[in-house]
Amino acid sequence: MFLNCHTYHSLRYGTISVEDLVQLAVDYKLKVLALTDINTVTGIYQFYKLCKQKGIKPVVGVDVRVENEQYYICLAKNPKGIAEINKLLTDYNCDGIEIPRTNPQLENCFVIYSLKNIPEHLAEHEFIGIRQNELNLLIKPELKSLVHKMVILHPVTFKVDENNEQYKLHKILRAIDANTLLTKLEQDHYCKSDETFVNKKLLLNKYIQFPEIIDNTKFIVDECSFDFDFKTPKNKKYYTDSKESDFQLLSHLAYVGFTKRYSDDNTSAKERVEKELMVIDELNFSGYFLITWDIIQYSKTMGFMHVGRGSGANSIIAYCLGITDICPLELDLYFERFLNLNRKTPPDFDIDWSWKNRDTILEYIFKKYGKDHVAFCGTNVEFKRKSRFRELGKVFGLPKDELDQLSKKPKEEHDQNSVVQEIYKYEQLMVGFPNQRSMHSCGILISEEPITNYSVLEFPPKEFPIVQFDMHTAEDIGLEKFDILSQRGLGTIKDTVQLIEEKRGITIDIEDTALSKNEQKCNEFLSIGKTIGCFYIESPAMRGLLRRLKCDNYKVLVAASSIIRPGVAQSGMMREYIFRHNHSGQFEYFHEVFEKELGETYGIMVYQEDVIKIAMHFGGVSAANGDVLRRAMSGKGRSLLALQRLQDDFFESCKRKGHPDQLSKEVYRQIESFAGYSFCKAHSASYAVESYQSLYLKAYYPIEFMVSAINNGGGFYRTEVYVHEAKMAGAKIYNPCVNLSEFQTTVYGTEVYLGLMHIERLEAAVKLFIPEERKKNGDYRSLEDFLKRVNIGIETLQILIFVGAFRFTGKQKHELLIEARFLLSKNQYRTKIISLFDEPQKDYELPVIERNPFEDAFDELEILGFTVSYSIFDLLQTKYRGSVLVKDLLKHHKKQVKMLAYLISRKHVPIKNKYGYRDDMYFGTWIDAEGQYFDTAHFPDSLKKFPFKEGGIYLLLGTVEVDYHFPTITIIKMAKMPLIADPRYSMDIEKAQEMENSLQEDVSLTFREPYPQEHEIGLPRKKA
């Protein structure tokens, strides 16, 4: 009887989750229920499953509305009906085809109109919905004659509650959607006050005098049958035209690739190829491999670099096809982690391209496989805490300063008035509510049937269509995604290779993976953490780990890439791995199984494969449950639910094997920590290959490498850090120059000219035009010549003058400013037309003005965000540079030191104090006066007395702790050091201090739980 139910997937309209809607149907003893969210099918698959579990017949459809006006309700008679609705809405969303107000072409649907929109002609499958409070209108002759085409219409939008809070919540959502005050919300923007579940019998009694209406309603729900097959894969089946020809092509390509990767007498590789081909064929995944291969082939024809990772890199077939560059035999990669006969879903290929090339790859995929068969996964973006407070504050009419206080500050600092108390109440009710649909960052779906058979498509701002459900629903219904990713690291590598060839005439085949796996200089850089700018191994945490491990080879780097992940670290085993790596023979294996299966990693579970091995060989779980475990760790469903299902099985099996309870609990604790937060070995190996490629270029061509890193937007750090790295590598850094700079940063020998891209206040069109015009018509000869050729205003010109872009003229900045104002005041110089007979520029005699040498540094701070002409340390009031420099730290273990240091970045980490309450600590990364990096730890007691005061130079007092070759300073006290007054504002004391307060810093936050301490692990781990 309830043919028009909404959930919160009717964005900023419904207030009920899908789970709650079905549970309410159970509570009201309903046998049939319809879900018709507004213009979306986001929830229908979850709804279908939950209804089946509860013994309710699911009816699905859509409430079609245009600009808040309801056109009609569509109920699918069968899956074809949903496809018709999806196509109707997709045509509107993606192609702008108007939705007909009446009589849509939906042969496999029932269409129900409200009394406000009755068409002139009703087709056989079309009906009119009449609400109980509209029954008195049936005395009208024009309506009475249509009773035979009427059905019960009782929409459901919110849950009933004593204080009517849910109805008010609905109104609040509508006000948020309309961007208006709650008090100004128009009546036709929100639903009627009775749109909630009522007793079915009482509802039917309202219609007792109109049996036709009741019969029509029963007829519709009886005729609707949305039986969906979740088990059959929905991905594109074949790359060619059949399974047989797919397998034939895959086998041919695999053996062609085999001859390139291996020698003909490599029997173990040949056996692995044969084994994998057999499994791939049996699981019907040949097409999946070939589609991935096809995308890679296109990429190679375009000259793009890619990295194939994910569990797909476990496959020798992927290696032979060129999808990955990881030899599974070299690293003893576990194929069953990637594919096994228990697996019903296609495997994971995560393919990375440069951020510059990814859209080209996406365009190829959409063109090759057809826009009707390709779309991105969607994501449901929830109202976050800040947005909940801000949106509610706006709806309740709070001024901007109070909105800022609500959204940015903790509750303790809020003004606790009655309006704020009301906001608190509804803020909590909105937790988990979706706010908008967005595009998954990388997940592409390629379907066999038209993708609108399963979803409406939408066009978010990035101009690639998305389905209305997320990756979990996609997987659930049999649509597996291809992960097409982008990153800046590949762009840096590719650009460096091109820059070296352009500037030095040296050609480097960087994709030759043998090139950089055993380079002495690279290994030295690794062991001392000299890796800033290198993909995945440049963060402070990773550089510290490399130093603790004294990592000096590829295989240790592969392990390091995984033990840095929260899964290993969360279990406490990262710390244990470091100990065992540094103290071979001074530890005990937990059990002989750990020694046998995990000898390479000292008995520590490092990779997802290790977890599966231990679960199966130590815990005795079945191969099928091993696959469940794989999925729990692969990010398919990042939760502990799948692991919890295995818990009983694991402990029972451990008991049968005679394992001590304490050991079994500890092993399970370690396994549990891996859920969703760990790498498979092949994934780590792929990262390690790219990291080594970066490191090779950094070691042998450091200036070109850092220039490319700067041009690709850097990575973990801000631009200033990469400029500093270039300087430390021997580069001379120069400010942007209109004659020597390009849009991007460029290099001439060891001279690096910052690109115009770094002048944020310069318009993008001007940044591009200046070098383009120079290439066409030669260098700019003077400021006057520049202004004849570049149409530019005085404010923009002043920025260029202050940054030093006209220093080639040999004139001081104040001279250039006066000249600029004079030239721009003459209208004839506003044109860009170049005269054939230019008159010589007149010389003007101006008084010589003594400039403070540090004025340029403050200009640079203001325009670029960092200094170029001078070190930031040169701007300090004090000449003191600390009692110890980084190069001496290893000699000061357990000693107090005073250091003067410039803050590069800090990471906020939650911890628990001794009372069990959450507290905060920070890890800082700094450079000393010589430009060398070091790290600090700031615990809560110190932070409360000596907090960070944003970017700048600090005087630090702390104790040096050398932890496996890596020194860290535990801070006792610190104070931010004042800079000299800005000499540009010598007459304005307040203005002269502004730049000091604008120094940059990078702040990151981790949301993980605190890592366990040694005593919390509960097992003896080291030999006495």
TrEMBL record:
Pfam families: DNA_pol3_alpha, DNA_pol3_finger, HHH_6, PHP. The keyword Cell membrane does not apply. SMART domains: POLIIIAc. Residues 1-68 form the Polymerase/histidinol phosphatase N-terminal domain. One of its GO terms (molecular function) is DNA-directed DNA polymerase activity. It catalyses: DNA(n) + a 2'-deoxyribonucleoside 5'-triphosphate = DNA(n+1) + diphosphate. It is an enzyme of class 2 (transferase). CDD domains: PHP_PolIIIA. Its EC number is 2.7.7.7. Keywords: DNA replication, DNA-directed DNA polymerase, Nucleotidyltransferase, Transferase. NCBIfam families: polc. This is DNA polymerase III subunit alpha. It comes from Chryseobacterium terrae.
